[in-house]
Each structure stands twice: as structure tokens, then as C-alpha cells.
Amino acid sequence: MRASRVEHDKEIHISGAEGIYKFDELERFLKKFFKRATEHPNGFPDKIFFTLEKIKEQIQFIKALPIKTVFCETPEKAKEIINEHLTKLGISEKAITTGWNVIKGQKMRGAALIDCLTGVRIEPNKERGVRVSRIHMDKKRKIQVLRKIKNLTSEPQRVIEAVTVASKVASCSEVVAEICVSDNLNYTTGYIASKEFGYLRITNIKKHGEAIGGRAFFVKTPLKIDKLIKFLEKTPVIVI
Ligand code: PML
């Protein structure tokens, strides 16, 4: 589901959701997504798109990354901690700078793919980026995550979705790490994720009201880029 509104000739994203469901669950979840789109604190939408696709491929089951929250008092401190972690993973200074530039540019809905050594962006479509899709978190894991973060976020659903994305991304052998900053003006917790460190929530990654945000995946090259993008965008994955 994708809900949006047009303001000053610009399409503003209001809310989105996706999941993998059995046929007999569809009606219930469509209603739930409709409610989410029309009762969202970001306002009432002009347009809601629902896309339903039959899954024909084999569904893969992937372990959820472990979650930890790192409390930072300022964006400067957050940046320092993030850069330290990324450097420990062998990501070069150039690549880290490209990652921050992507996030400050705030132009793409999808993620940038950055060569972790040269810092060059290698995704074929730089306007669109790579959109991680066909993902779902298993109900039991969802309950466990909700329990873990209940006093740490005002938007638990946002965290569930982010952990689901990050777990799919980190499962790829080509991906060294991910960095994500929400493009929502008032959501100031972001994350870095990797197989080594898990999902590290970073508080105060940006200032309140700051119009930045985005996602970048640091990858090892050479790699079969079409295969990686196909997995991220098309392979159905349930995070357990
Ligand atoms: C978190 O609170 O764990 C961070 C979630 C970042 C979500 C990015 C987004 O807005 O989609």
C-alpha cells in the first residue's frame, strides 16, 4: 500500500506498508492497510495504491538481526559512532562520505549501492535507487521485537518495517553494511545494520525538522549487481 498527497505540485509520501499473506487473510489486511492510510498522523491522502501480486517463487526464511539501541545526545556524536562502526567493517572514508551525501541529498525513495572501497555509487538507476520489497516479518518475531522496543519508540511499526528491510539486506553476502536515516521530519532515530553488529538503532541521528533522509548499502565488489538487485526487489522473504 502506498498513500500520498499532492502539496504545491509535489507528491508527498504519507504512509506505506507491505506483507506476504495467505489468500484468505487478504481482505483483513487490505482493511488494516486502508485504515492505516486514512488515519495516519501525516494527514489524509489524495491517492492510495494497493498492489496485490501472487507469489510464484519459493519464499526464503531469514533470521532477524538482533536489535540494540545506541543512545546519542547529538547528531555529531551519532555520526562519530556510526563512522567508527563502518570503519571497523572495512568501509573506506570515501565510501562513508558518499553514504552521508546520499542521506543529505534526500532525493531517492530507494537505496544507493556504494562500493565499500572506492565510494562510487553503482546502482544502475540513481534517481530511483534500489527498493527492497516482498518482505514480511513473522508474527512471533514481531511480538518479540515490539516487546523489546516498546519504551524506546513512538512508532513501533516503523521499527518493525526497518528491521525487516535490514535483515533481508544484511543476509546478502555482497552487503557489508547499511545506513538509514528516516526522511520523516520528526523521526530522529536511524540505524546502521550489518551481519557483524546486527541492527543498531542510533538516536538523534538528525535534528528535529531536518529535511534529510535515505538509505545506502555498502557493497563488496566485484559483484553480480543484477542478481543482487533482483534478490532485494523481487525474492519473497519472511524474516523469522
Ligand atoms: C528505528 O527506530 O529503529 C529506526 C527506524 C528508521 C526507519 C526509517 C524509515 O523512516 O523508514
Automatic annotation (TrEMBL):
Pathway: Metabolic intermediate metabolism; pimeloyl-CoA biosynthesis; pimeloyl-CoA from pimelate: step 1/1. GO terms for molecular function: 6-carboxyhexanoate-CoA ligase activity; ATP binding. Its cofactor is Mg(2+). It catalyses: heptanedioate + ATP + CoA = 6-carboxyhexanoyl-CoA + AMP + diphosphate. Its EC number is 6.2.1.14. It is an enzyme of class 6 (ligase). Homodimer. This is 6-carboxyhexanoate--CoA ligase. It comes from Thermodesulfovibrio autotrophicus.
